[in-house]
Write a structure and sequence with these properties.
By secondary structure, the protein is an alpha/beta fold. It is 31% helix and 24% strand. The strands form 6 sheets. A 4-stranded mixed sheet has the order 22-23-1-24. A hairpin with a 5-residue loop joins strand 4 and strand 5. Helix 4 packs parallel to helix 6 and helix 5 packs parallel to helix 6. The chain binds ligand EPZ.
Length: 425
């Protein structure tokens, strides 16, 4: 199993190109199922989760062509079976995104229920309720969701019990081909929703209100292919900025969008970083200073993203003073805390609250990644820690960070991948 070996204590300095967003590309790939003609997505990141979604499409008989510029062309007309099997779905929860488009376009779908997850129970009840509200017949049997509709789905008003990104995306995709008007209330407002609505509109869907908590969809009979770009990854952007902050360094992130991460940039300014932005770049310069402690709580967009909580906690770990962090989205998203404490951090957790007493220095130790963002928080902390840190189970990081060690090396970090083979020698 691959590991990352990091010799910390180097101040990062340089520029890094940000990839397309995993969490935007995944629903966009699912949405290609709705097109009567091929859809081409550009700026698709090369990641394990993207490969899984492409495998799910391929397994249904859908034709997927990937070129060397990370453009992915999907032709859903070759679909032979509307089934997403457990073997694939269990490796990635986002597989559930195919449910809405399959049902809307082909009238049926069989999708395995995603299994448990390290960061929380993460049920999909809201996805199923939303599709049922459009008239779908939904049965859950033997771990599979069987969804069916006689004729087209019927537009309806649906109020989500809680703000759910994936639930909003599934309903939005299904509603595009429904008969009549669908009104989605308490909709998620994440930039990834706006990106999805942008693709669907380019395919011919009639959508208004994406990016607000009420989205209205006027159903159409068919959608066509188009070429559409995946937005920049705001979480990857924030993660490299955190790596700059923790090492007292300077990093300029390129091909990104400052409007995607207002709440995070605000907190970086509060810790004392000099943050400057342009139309498609963000630079963070810590000017060799130690960050100051700040408090934050995670919240649905435009609040502070839960997907940045672990990485920002690594910054808090070396900050001057005590930070209070409250996680409000997932019930178990503090798995990185014991590992950060192994690196010398002083973090105590009580329920949803973490109290981080900043230390002036972290020390290297062997640590283990438990999920995607937790693994990046360990890498960030290791960049600041004295000595050589070995981060184990980094397959998690490969799900969401494209060429992470190459990108960090280009910023001056001393990091390398240790392959399973090297270890056994
Ligand atoms: C998306 O997950 C992201 N994944 C997550 O990113 C992110 O953490 C999350 O949104 C919150 O921003 C993708 O976009 C692929 P939710 P999603 O539905 O859609 C509860 C990462 O690190 N809920 O907004 O699954 C749920 O348990 C990942 O890249 C229900 O109870 O998240 C959670 O507590 C991890 N029933 C809350 O809502 C449902 O039917 C928000 O989840 C759906 C959700």
């Amino acid at each position: 199993m691959d590991k990352l070996l990091i010799s910390g204590g180097i101040r990062l300095d340089g520029e890094v190109r940000i990839s397309g967003a995993k969490n935007a590309a995944l629903p966009l790939l699912a949405a290609t199922l709705l097109g009567e003609t091929p859809v081409t997505l550009t700026n698709v990141p090369q990641l394990k989760d993207i490969t899984t979604m492409i495998q799910i499409l391929g397994n249904m008989g859908v034709s997927v062509v990937i070129d060397e510029k990370c453009q992915v062309e999907v032709n859903a007309n070759t679909l032979t079976t509307a089934v997403a099997p457990y073997e694939l779905v269990r490796t990635m929860r986002a597989s559930i995104f195919v449910l809405g488009p399959l049902l809307a376009r082909f009238g049926e779908a069989t999708v395995s229920l995603p299994g448990g997850c390290a960061i929380g129970s993460r049920p999909v009840d809201q996805h199923l309720k939303a599709l049922a509200a459009l008239g779908a017949d939904i049965q859950v049997e033997n771990g599979y969701v069987h969804a069916r509709t006689k004729g087209r789905l019927k537009g309806a008003r649906f109020v989500f019990d809680m703000v759910t990104v994936g639930g909003t995306e599934n309903l939005l995709m299904a509603a595009t081909l429904a008969e009549g008007t669908t009104v989605i209330e308490n909709a998620a407002r994440e930039p990834e929703i706006i990106n999805l609505a942008g693709l669907l509109s380019a395919m011919g869907a009639q959508i208004s209100g994406a990016g607000t908590d009420t989205i209205t969809v006027q159903g159409v009979k068919a959608l066509q292919g188009c070429t559409y770009r995946v937005i920049a990854d705001r979480i990857e952007t924030g993660s490299y900025l955190a790596a700059a902050a923790v090492t007292g360094g300077r990093v300029k992130t390129l091909d990104t969008d400052p409007f995607l991460l207002d709440a995070v940039l605000l907190k970086f300014r509060d810790v004392g970083a000099l943050v400057t932005t342009g139309p498609d770049w963000i630079e963070l310069d810590m000017q060799g200073r130690r960050p100051l402690a700040v408090n934050f709580r995670t919240a649905p967009h435009p609040g502070f993203p839960t997907d940045m909580q672990a990485q920002f906690m690594a910054v808090s770990a070396v900050s001057e003073g005590t930070s209070t962090i409250i996680e409000t989205i997932f019930e178990n998203r503090y798995m990185h805390v014991p590992e950060l404490n192994r690196l010398g951090a002083k973090i105590a957790v009580d329920g949803h609250t973490a109290i981080v007493s900043g230390v002036s220095e972290l020390q290297a130790a062997p640590v283990m990644a438990t999920d995607l963002r937790a693994s990046m928080s360990l890498v960030i902390a290791a960049l600041a820690a004295k000595g050589d840190t070995l981060v184990d189970r980094i397959y998690h990081i490969d799900r969401g960070y494209e060429r992470v060690e190459e990108k960090l090396q280009s910023l001056g970090a001393n990091i390398r991948r240790v392959t399973g083979r090297e270890e056994s020698q």
